[in-house]
């Protein structure tokens, strides 16, 4: 309803005729995983193209390699990563953004105990104002099966950076301003813990 906008008639008409074009292509370049082998890897690639009637456009391409070594059936050491370039323009302003993630992690799991211990490094830069954001934090989770079939206790602490694109932001708010600053969302620390399990074949719980 255009009456909800406190703006002139031209602005109301422009806001109500927003149209979007989105194209997404995903592919796997290479992949290998076998519990009997001493290594594993996966190299997916993604390309996204976005445009709208307000002269905003984005070209988004990224690769997310995972590589690692399998010591035995219970433990492994791996590296999860992401390298992403986003180019295009928001209204009349050209932007080139670069996003990098490196997440080395050790994993151990047996019948009753599970451990994930690593660090998460993220970096973001935007050519429009030479802004740079860096985040380094833990990626740790432990879980113990009090009862392997019905009750597990878990706890952990993580840190992360979320890469926000104009496409993802406008998906949440279609009337987002063209001059909205594009920067990542940083979660320095998230501490969690609790128990989860099953009281019946059809009833799961987590607290």
Walk me through the structure.
- This protein is mainly beta and 207 residues long.
- 7% of the residues lie in helices and 65% in strands.
- The protein is built from two helices and eleven strands; from the N terminus they run αβββββββββαββ.
- Give the SSE order as H and E letters: HEEEEEEEEEHEE
Give the uncertain stretches in residue-range form.
1-9
Q: How confident is the prediction overall: mean pLDDT?
A: 85
Number of strands: 11
Record the SSE blueprint:
Blueprint: H1 9-16, E1 20-32, E2 39-52, E3 57-63, E4 66-70, E5 75-90, E6 93-109, E7 113-126, E8 131-147, E9 151-162, H2 166-172, E10 185-200, E11 203-206
Antiparallel strand pairs: 1-2, 2-3, 2-4, 3-5, 4-5, 5-6, 6-7, 7-8, 8-9, 9-10, 10-11
């Amino acid at each position: 309803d255009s009456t909800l906008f406190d703006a002139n008639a031209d602005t109301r008409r422009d806001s109500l005729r927003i149209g979007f074009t989105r194209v997404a292509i995903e592919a796997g370049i290479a992949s290998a995983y076998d519990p009997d082998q001493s290594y594993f890897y996966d190299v997916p690639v993604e390309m996204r193209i976005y445009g709208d009637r307000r002269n905003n456009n984005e070209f988004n391409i990224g690769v997310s390699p995972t590589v690692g070594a399998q010591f035995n059936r219970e433990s492994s050491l791996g590296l999860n990563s992401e390298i992403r370039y986003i180019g295009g323009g928001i209204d009349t302003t050209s932007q080139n953004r670069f996003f990098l993630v490196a997440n080395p992690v050790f994993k151990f799991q047996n019948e009753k105990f599970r451990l994930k211990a690593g660090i998460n490094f993220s970096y973001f830069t935007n050519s429009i104002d030479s802004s740079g954001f860096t985040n380094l934090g833990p990626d740790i989770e432990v879980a113990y099966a009090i009862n392997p079939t019905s009750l597990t206790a878990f706890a952990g602490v993580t840190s992360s950076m979320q890469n926000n694109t104009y496409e993802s932001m406008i998906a949440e708010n279609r009337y987002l301003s063209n001059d909205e600053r594009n920067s990542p969302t940083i979660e320095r620390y998230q501490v969690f813990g609790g128990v989860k399990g099953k009281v019946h074949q059809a009833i799961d719980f987590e607290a």
